[in-house]
Amino acid sequence: MKLRNILIVLFSFQILFTLLLKYFSYQGDLSSELHEKILKYFTEADIQAGIDYSRRGFFVSIIASLLDFTLAGAFVFTPLSSRLEEFFQKKVGGNFYLVVFLYFISFYLIEFFISLPFSYYFGFVIEHEFQFSNMTFLDWVIFKSKSFGIGLFFGTIIMLVVAFVLKNLPRAWKYILPILSLGFGLLTSVLFPIIITPIFYDFGPIEEGSLKNKIVALSEKANIRIENIYVIKESQYSGHTNAYFTGWGESKKIFLYDTLIKNHTEEEVISVLGHEIGHWVHNHQTFEIVLGTIQTFLFCFLLGYVFQKVKAEELVPLKEFYSPSTLPFLFLILSLIGTVIEPFSAGLSRILETQADQEALILTNDKKSFINTEIKLAKDNKSRLNPHKLEIIFEHSHPTTLERIELAESWKGPN
Ligand SMILES: [Zn+2]
């Protein structure tokens, strides 16, 4: 069988599978056994709110997916992509990098404007309907414009660097790109809170007081030195809550959403931070970076190999490997690989999240606050409390709320 045909079959399977998974996610797990277990911690209304929120916009999300697939199919299996590149080539003459730049910009604009109405519907209309969003329409436009500009800026730099490496190092690129992407990943984790966060958020150091003292005591207990604790003003945008760590070695920073502090007791905030510290204690970040780099190496080899084979068949309109018009083809291959490995990466992530939960319980020694946090978070975010098993296997990076509560219930700590 021709490789092109194999790709078309895999692509069709991917579309079917995506739709099927959406259907199962819509259904959820409606077994009465699960329902009874959930009712120990939640009301019928909580369960229904999760169902309503997760089901809202079902058909619109199907249309969005189908549109995405159609666009990907058209760009990969018809001459559309190479025609676009040729068009720019004619306009600007032989300047390769200018063609790369123009191709990327048009690709980015097409993608952005096609996804814009969906982004407005899901990110603005539905978020208001469920009373999550505090944004005015103007706030939303500003937020979107900033994301657009940042994506365009970094996307252009990445594209030009990748094009340079591919064109000038036809053999070594497989080794160079994973190393560059590792470097870029480390750099963004340091620069993100300094450059990107301030573009979107107001934030400042946490107030002196008992919460700060408790956080310092917690990090000392875990042997983690914290440089700064910041409070991010998420309430200007939404009621969603979050907390995260950034930085490396001696310069760790904690970011807490003001919504988290407002809606939770100090003990509950500490429980959330205990989980984040759990990730540090178990070196999950380092583990994920090493794994990610190995993965990038393998992907590069695979992409190079598949490209050569498919190009040799001359059935898919492909130019050179470094040509900008090859980009949609490479994205398609990556997305196919992604679908295949999704359950493995999601499963691994759930294992790490469980480990962080266990560490939170050990560090805080407070399973009551842990359980209350889980209940409150699920209620506040209208989480789906009865997700379908297939959805969990393929898409959930975290254990379900009920699993996390049950983990805490079974914890044999001092209280
Ligand atoms: Zn986590």
Automatic annotation (TrEMBL):
Bound cofactor: record note: Binds 1 zinc ion per subunit.
Keyword Metal-binding: yes
Cofactors named for this entry: Zn(2+)
The family this protein is said to belong to: Belongs to the peptidase M48 family.
Coiled coil: none
CDD domains documented for this protein: M48A_Zmpste24p_like
Protein name (Swiss-Prot/TrEMBL): M48 family peptidase
Gene Ontology MF terms: metal ion binding; metalloendopeptidase activity
Keywords noted in UniProt: Endoplasmic reticulum, Hydrolase, Membrane, Metal-binding, Metalloprotease, Protease, Transmembrane, Transmembrane helix, Zinc
Localization in the cell: Endoplasmic reticulum membrane
Organism: Leptospira sarikeiensis
TM ranges: 6-24, 58-77, 97-126, 147-166, 172-196, 289-307, 327-348
Domain spans labelled CAAX prenyl protease 1 N-terminal: 36-201
Main localization category: endoplasmic reticulum
